[in-house]
Design a protein that fits this description.
Layout (H helix, E strand, L loop, with lengths): L64 H6 L6 H26 L11 H37 L1
Amino acid sequence: MADDEAPEVDPRFDPVFQRGYDPAVHAAPVRRSVLRAPAVKPAPLPVAPTPAEVPSVVRVEHEDQDELEDEPHRRNPWLLALVLVSTAFLAAAGVFLWVIGQRDIYSFSGTPAAAELMVQQLSYMLPPALIVAGVLGLVLRVALGALRGRA
């Protein structure tokens, strides 16, 4: 076994990473691996300007600035609607949960009507979704107010 030639290498793969590779026996690889590519020096970073070279911000005074300051800030009706709808969702969830808590489940004897069954199922299924929608709406309103205040 030791007297045999070097084992054949698979030409589909880089011979350097195969068992039995001998650089004296096998030909140099046709293409080089990405890992063995010569490193290229990165371009130097640009030098930051000194504070003396940075231009200062110039405040432009408007002729109509007094008129702009006198104008009252208008409220966005959509943001007000967002708060009102979110609060209404939370109130509706509270009402549904109150109805569920006040229901006497042991006193009914008979077959319930279809409308009563629908109201019962709605009172069980709607409160979680209404609570999530209401809290999400209020958080969205706070986030939009924070973005508007930052500008």
